[in-house]
Design goal:
CATH architecture of one domain: 3-Layer(aba) Sandwich
Distance between the termini: 55 Å
Order of helices and strands: HEHEHEHEHHEHEEHEEEHEEHEHH
Radius of gyration: 20 Å
CATH class of one domain: Alpha Beta
CATH topology of one domain: Rossmann fold
Shape: globular
CATH superfamily of one domain: NAD(P)-binding Rossmann-like Domain
Low-confidence stretches: none
Structural class: alpha/beta
Helix content: 40-55%
């Protein structure tokens, strides 16, 4: 039987034939830089916005150095989304906005709820106003699985959210509410993507609020202990970055108008315990560093604000966006570990040579 192209293959082909102008906020971050990479590879014109509070210029350098011919199609706005004027400048002449800029991390938001609100809510509102005034075709924004809060039923379905368990979760609930209001009040097209636990290349392993996968990879490579908060049975729906890139482009340029004014789960529909995740990472790194084979995790007390389990129902994203994960956890982990080991090796070489 003939094989028909997937929804994503169709969108990619259309974008190559009919290039658009995109704004990616948080472009120097983990997800933003991966979106930039895909868009440039598809011949798109991209304006990126970042204040480098959590993003890294090295991420942009990695993308652009591998694509020297694409530099003329990329413009950087070095600015903060908390500035309405900067948001207006960034939105001028743009077809689609992929809004990734935010202060992530549940622990960070518990430690400093004011800054999390200012960036995640005030900054988001600025971007919506700017996109409205610039008559942007569609805004796709990053929401989070944290909106499910204390809702215990699994799998998590879009219409069944619970009470938020952290200030970070509250900011994402506010984003979804504002997006819906702007669509209904100003005839804008808005789609939210509820990311579950995203991982992959260029995810920062450093800092107090680093995500679990890059933090454990870095710890194992350095010979440091890996901490699991709780009994290890806490589980997450881990989603490789390639799936998230797909969801963003489908939501922006592929989904019909009937799919707007909604927020969709972006995940794999599989749940993995933290203990199982640790051994998957450890054993994967063992191919590069065999001495890791006997390393065991270190268990500590549960952290406040963490939900015990997450498992996404991705039926709506499949049906309304055409989303279909291309990478399961093991597939994505193999690619991610290869990047982290290569990056660590390059960093070590630079240290030895005195370049850094």
């Amino acid at each position: 039987m003939p094989r028909f192209p997937s929804a994503y293959e169709t969108v990619r082909s259309d974008l190559i034939t009919n290039p658009r102008v995109w704004l990616v906020t948080g472009v120097a971050g983990f997800i933003g830089s991966n979106l930039l990479e895909e868009l440039l590879d598809l011949g798109q014109t991209v304006r990126g916005m970042d204040n480098f509070l959590t993003g890294h210029r090295e991420n942009l350098a990695e993308v652009l150095s591998a694509r020297p011919d694409a530099k003329t199609r990329f413009e950087l706005v070095d600015a903060d989304i908390r500035s309405i004027d900067a948001c207006r400048e960034a939105c001028t002449g743009v077809d689609y906005v992929l809004h990734q800029a935010a202060l992530g991390s549940v622990p960070r938001s518990i430690h400093d709820p004011i800054t999390s609100h200012q960036v995640n809510v005030d900054g988001f509102l600025n971007m919506l106003v700017a996109a409205r005034d610039a008559r942007v075709k569609r805004v796709v924004y990053a929401s989070s699985s944290s909106v499910y809060g204390d809702r215990a039923e699994l799998p998590q379905k879009e219409g069944n959210t619970g009470r938020p368990l952290s200030p970070y979760a509250a900011t994402k609930v506010a984003n979804e509410m504002y997006a819906g209001v702007f669509q209904r009040s100003y005839d804008m097209e808005m789609i939210g993507l509820r990311y579950f636990n995203v991982f992959g290349r260029r995810q920062d392993p450093n800092g107090a609020y680093a995500a679990v996968i890059p933090r454990w990879v870095s710890s194992l490579l350095r010979g440091e202990p890996c901490r699991i908060f709780g009994d290890g049975e806490t589980s997450r729906d881990f989603c490789y970055i390639a799936n998230v890139v797909q969801a963003n482009l489908l939501a922006a340029a592929g989904a019909r108008a009937a799919a707007t004014d909604g927020a969709y789960n972006v995940a794999c529909g599989e749940s993995t315990s933290l203990t199982k995740l640790f051994y998957l990472i450890r054993d994967g790194l063992g191919a590069y560093k065999p001495s890791l084979g006997a390393v065991q995790p270190q268990y500590e007390d549960f952290r406040p604000g963490d939900i015990p389990r997450s498992l996404a129902d991705i039926t709506s994203a499949r049906g309304l966006l055409g989303y279909e994960p291309t990478h399961r956890l093991a597939d994505g982990m193999a690619e991610a570990l290869e990047w982290y080991v290569s990056s660590a090796s390059a960093r070590q070489s630079e240290l030895v040579s005195g370049k850094v």
